[in-house]
Amino acid sequence: MKNNFVVRDINLASKGKQSIEWVSKWMPVLDNVYRQYKTENVFKNKKVALCIHLEAKTAYLALTIKKLGAEVWVTSSNTLSTKDEVAAALAVNGIHVYAKHAATRDEYWSYLETILKNNMDVTVDDGGDICEYLHTHSKYGKNLKGICEETTTGVNRLKELEKSGKLLYPSIAVNDAKSKHLFDNRYGTGQSTWTAITQLTNMNIAGKTVVVAGYGWVGRGVATRAQGMGAEVIVTEIDPWKALEAKMDGHRVMTMLDASSLGDFFITTTGFSNIIRMEHITRMKNGAFLSNAGHFDFEIDIPSLKKQAKSCKVVRDEIEEYLLTNKKKVYVLAQGGIINIAGGLGHPADIMDLSFSVQLGCLHFLLSTKNLVPKVYKVPTEIDRLVTEEKLKAEGITIDK
Amino acid sequence: MKNNFVVRDINLASKGKQSIEWVSKWMPVLDNVYRQYKTENVFKNKKVALCIHLEAKTAYLALTIKKLGAEVWVTSSNTLSTKDEVAAALAVNGIHVYAKHAATRDEYWSYLETILKNNMDVTVDDGGDICEYLHTHSKYGKNLKGICEETTTGVNRLKELEKSGKLLYPSIAVNDAKSKHLFDNRYGTGQSTWTAITQLTNMNIAGKTVVVAGYGWVGRGVATRAQGMGAEVIVTEIDPWKALEAKMDGHRVMTMLDASSLGDFFITTTGFSNIIRMEHITRMKNGAFLSNAGHFDFEIDIPSLKKQAKSCKVVRDEIEEYLLTNKKKVYVLAQGGIINIAGGLGHPADIMDLSFSVQLGCLHFLLSTKNLVPKVYKVPTEIDRLVTEEKLKAEGITIDK
Amino acid sequence: MKNNFVVRDINLASKGKQSIEWVSKWMPVLDNVYRQYKTENVFKNKKVALCIHLEAKTAYLALTIKKLGAEVWVTSSNTLSTKDEVAAALAVNGIHVYAKHAATRDEYWSYLETILKNNMDVTVDDGGDICEYLHTHSKYGKNLKGICEETTTGVNRLKELEKSGKLLYPSIAVNDAKSKHLFDNRYGTGQSTWTAITQLTNMNIAGKTVVVAGYGWVGRGVATRAQGMGAEVIVTEIDPWKALEAKMDGHRVMTMLDASSLGDFFITTTGFSNIIRMEHITRMKNGAFLSNAGHFDFEIDIPSLKKQAKSCKVVRDEIEEYLLTNKKKVYVLAQGGIINIAGGLGHPADIMDLSFSVQLGCLHFLLSTKNLVPKVYKVPTEIDRLVTEEKLKAEGITIDK
Amino acid sequence: MKNNFVVRDINLASKGKQSIEWVSKWMPVLDNVYRQYKTENVFKNKKVALCIHLEAKTAYLALTIKKLGAEVWVTSSNTLSTKDEVAAALAVNGIHVYAKHAATRDEYWSYLETILKNNMDVTVDDGGDICEYLHTHSKYGKNLKGICEETTTGVNRLKELEKSGKLLYPSIAVNDAKSKHLFDNRYGTGQSTWTAITQLTNMNIAGKTVVVAGYGWVGRGVATRAQGMGAEVIVTEIDPWKALEAKMDGHRVMTMLDASSLGDFFITTTGFSNIIRMEHITRMKNGAFLSNAGHFDFEIDIPSLKKQAKSCKVVRDEIEEYLLTNKKKVYVLAQGGIINIAGGLGHPADIMDLSFSVQLGCLHFLLSTKNLVPKVYKVPTEIDRLVTEEKLKAEGITIDK
């Protein structure tokens, strides 16, 4: 069967191919999991849909699934993160890809519909949109063996459906695998947030004061790396235990209101909205930088900032300067979107290797396990363990038994 | 009622008093929890037994409980850690104390018996000996409202009793409180292990290779502090996720066999026995130091070492030199006992402030809550939260809501 | 007088203007030094030539000198680092600019000649080419009050001239100012090297082994930041004291031959040639990355690598893959050129603020001091102090007297 | 010739012998330098005087010199640091030792006189008292080939004598050797200061605010280790470059007046007097700790504190509690004397190995070099290099050439 596709420009394919080839060099765990499955027929002629940020690492996952014999449909979970050259490369490599950078909301949902009406066998979701569509259009779910969900947000949606008794399909909380959440948030986001900030701003971090809102995995990663770059770190928290841990890790801890006037760089990592508000922004130093490393772009109250600032102008790629009525200027990075993806290259390839290997393992589990019921399943421990052990092996590490 | 006691030398009381006064200055959380309870009569005339390492911080807990109106009985959970001067100070301050440094096993159990036959209302255990006694002598448990357990080991004993349906009393797993286990192992043991090692050995740590067996809370604390002192750290683990975390935290990870020939200092933190065995010791560099930061003294196989070494002599306080048949010498610190207590001052006072405040809160809970059943209870969240919030307050920290 | 210029494309000026405006926001020290001089006439109608990497920060120095009343001539010290849009922006702002990205060697020297035959009053050199030209064409030096030199290399050239009695002009070793060399190498290069590497490769650094050749200021900066990102660091050195310092800072120390098979990333920082040779490269792991943070591109023996490799291809921007005869692949970043400039944005703006403020102060000194003789002068302490004190003021820091 | 001695109690010798044997295990560099000299007769029957802190490491140096054939006379440079058991052990091992812990000033000078009137060939000084004596009693210097000086203070005294033309003997500034000053201050004092503080106080350092006065080698060592223990560090300085370095190393920088109200621990490292004065102490938090890691005990103005406090009492070994008129209490460690020696074990043995090997090398140089003149000599580079290369060898490190 020939593949169909909608992409921005098919001529970008060779550039996309180069990107995919690059990341493929650094995903040996995925290669090894693939090797374990390739002599079986579990994926043979199965229909698999992926709705994830469409860039090179995702593309390599799609191509790996295809090599296992499946038909693969791909769209992006966020049209702003779509790389058109990568989509083009998938199109010429036999993937059914429907994705354009900066597609409209209508286009986005039409892509999802186009894919899902082909009656998928299994799907990978990143935020829960496939899940939502298939729960409102259950006719297209008749073949569905299950859904793998990549994010906390999507897992929460699934659990609500489960609690209310409305969940229709077996689902796996991939996000909760130890080999995913222990590594990608702390080390992946921790590092890539700072690469993005220093690349966008050309600023020196040593000697600066960095305010990190939230001390969960992402916050710890961002704070640890800031400390490692010679910054002084201030942490804000609402959880007293995390606040005390931050203190004992050598950071200063205070309210955002107190921190407002001290920070040179502000980074939100909380998952909650309106963490940085006008009451904070008006107290900031002239020249403060605001950015967000959380999943959603609502942690900084940019709508109010836009409304109340005297002016707003783009002064550099992904940097907007807001002139406040108090005459100070503040700089917002990547419009408050998730900085490491919206303003950078996303997670390192060798970190995504872990997460996508878990995805492949979970798809295999859904396709090969009988009698699964509509329920949110944990990632099977043997998959979680397999991925971490393969990663250790790839790093040349042997441990005690 | 006058108190009874058995102590080594009552004349040591003034020296003990000085130690207790010192630590009392750094336990403001316990003072604040005390203040919340002092207008109530919950502890009034109640009998409370403590069986914990008997040193200054424990003594201050005992005196605080007494100030709340209780009769307090104290013995030590480990006769080697008993400070005779502290016991003497308790004796002259109205505490029923039965403890001598290096008491025999028979004396130890007779102390417990003497205390428990007075029919306690509540008890604090550290390892589970009170629990064992009261399950085999249940006639003395007729007034017992419950047991608070400080350690992982003791909590495990309680859970086995619960599972087998033999648990007779409500019990609280104090060890599992977030305000305890997140802090005392990582920060308390982490630091005090290194103070003990550097004080005992007078060695420079910068530039040395430190092998840490185990990457749980204690292992992380010990490894982080070693890194902070300029050492290169090697971690050994059996858990692949922890091994990978150690690697990503910048440590080298390998088997103990491979690490054996590389380390200058070896520190076990696993909770398992025979982690360092003769096959490792014979590969070590001449001059290697062996120590243990885990609860029990069985992590280094000292019995085999004693048997197979050509000679063993004490070369400095708490340091034994073993001459091996391969002509190399290795040095064992504190006979393989828990280094920060057996070879040092134990946890810092301001860290024990957290743990003992949880203990006081849990005793209060047991005494003031009706209808508790024989079951292992978690520490009530409001107590856990209270302690951490009081600690933040004591540090002058305000956080967001 | 109207300015003359040779630039690639004058239409790029508005883009260049944006870049210059951005960095100008983060150079408050230069602004303050400017303010101290602006009421004097020292620079009035003086001719000043700059031959430095031509990018935004350099451009802002040029414009600042022009604001003080001077005529400013600018070319680039390295045609590969020239930003055409910045050159265009200078051209439309009245600077005599002669620079094109990737200009030929002949063009380069013709630019220098065009500028220098206008008989400069003072010059800023970066590597010593102005100096060389004016020593071979001394007729153009008749008005010359002196030369400021930015680099170690250039300072060494000057000292040789001085020693041989051939130095014709007063010269200042700007590089040796404490406010320059203590900061830009360690903090500036340290950080920007890693931003470049992570941006070019999209690789995770935590858990990797990084081999740093050389433990001078640059090497320390690169090693410290690597450690701060969670890498294990190996240092190679030829100086025993630096080797021992590296060891005591927690790094492993060994020969390059031993390190060859262990590293994931190799970074040379020595200033010497052929630090990484084929005997090392053939021992490396498959997938090793080679890069250089030293001034010259001769630290990795790329000529031999090119000759002996089975193939070489560009696999990503600024990444060349070499397939060795042993079937392993290694990746060379930025062709072995100075990674933070050739593969990134160069030093952070707020670090260059220090160096360029020293330059401005030294130009002022040359123009306003009588009776200077042909000699290599140190930066006057009062200028060095002024710049650092202004930096502290800009950071809002007050210190004791 | 039988040796003479004055010690507190000769019966302590076996305990002292144990201490000396312990440190001798960790001084392999001194052993190797000894081996290079032992076949020569340079030290044969020469008279060598040492006036250094008299503890185990010094004793091992004395015994090593004796093994080379010299007659060795020893006294202590500071009577408070004298270990009586070590002195006793030297006495029974044939060293002419004159030293008692807490000897009076008169006794101290009588010991020096007793030794020096024996007409030494070479001497080792620590602070310059031998030098002073021999310049006022030059009749005893008739055989003197030269003086080795261990400290900055002593070197400064020597340089003043040299400048004023009054220096009578060749002298070597041992303190300035790279293998000494690059290592013992930063790593030795850095670590041993914290061992002393945590051992004396039993306080947790993680989460505390540490104020370090001075950012020279000692200050950097103390600050780096504090950071490594999880503290937040504030640095005070008078030198703007060091202040800026401290800032870029991630510390906060401010005046002592501003820091006063923020610190939990204060540590002076400046070498200047009255760094912490009453104006600072009265602003401190209740419970602040004051200590000094500089050579002299004058950095904290304890005389004023004693006068103005309402009371002062010893509350624990080496801890004095001062009650201020503002009702707050502050704690002074080791009476403001150098904390790592007065309150601890001094430098680690393996760090002193470097310094004392340089001493041995310099004594050898003085005894074997002809035609030295009264002048302050640098340590010969070949000795400095030898010591560092032997240290690398002892650590099993090979470096590139």
Describe the structure.
Four copies of one chain form a homotetramer. Chain A is α/β, with parallel strands linked by helices and 401 residues long. Chain A has helices at 13-24, 28-37, 56-67, 84-92, 105-116, 129-136, 152-163, 178-181, 184-201, 217-228, 240-248, 256-260, 278-281, 302-308, 339-342, 349-368, 381-394; strands at 5-6, 47-51, 71-75, 96-98, 122-125, 146-149, 171-173, 209-213, 232-236, 252-253, 265-268, 288-292, 311-316, 319-323, 329-333, 376-377. Chain A has an eight-stranded parallel β-sheet, sandwiched between helices. In chain A, strands 10-9-8-11-12-15-14-13 form an eight-stranded mixed β-sheet. In chain A, helix 7 links the parallel strand 6 and strand 7 (171-173). In chain A, helix 1 (13-24) packs across helix 3 (56-67). Chain A is globular. Chains in contact: A-B, A-C, A-D, B-C, B-D, C-D.
Radius of gyration of chain A (CA) equals 22 Å
CATH homologous superfamily placement of the largest domain in chain A: Adenosylhomocysteinase-like
Provide mean pLDDT of chain A, rounded: 95
By CATH reckoning, the class of the largest domain in chain A would read: Alpha Beta
Number of domains of chain A: 2
In angstroms, what separates the terminal alpha carbons of chain A? 48 Å
Low-pLDDT runs of 5+ residues of chain A are none
> How many distinct helices of chain A?
17
- Shape type of chain A: globular
Tell me the number of strands of chain A. Answer: 16
CATH topology of the largest domain in chain A: Rossmann fold
Structural class of chain A: alpha/beta
Which two chains form the greatest contact, residue counts included? A-C, 40 and 40 residues
CATH architecture of the largest domain in chain A: 3-Layer(aba) Sandwich
What is the assembly state of the chains in this entry? Answer: homotetramer
The biggest beta sheet of chain A reads:
8 strands, parallel
Tell me the helix content of chain A.
40-55%
Strand order in the sheet with the most strands of chain A: 1-4-3-2-5-6-7-16
Instruction: Quote the beta fraction of chain A.
Output: 15-25%
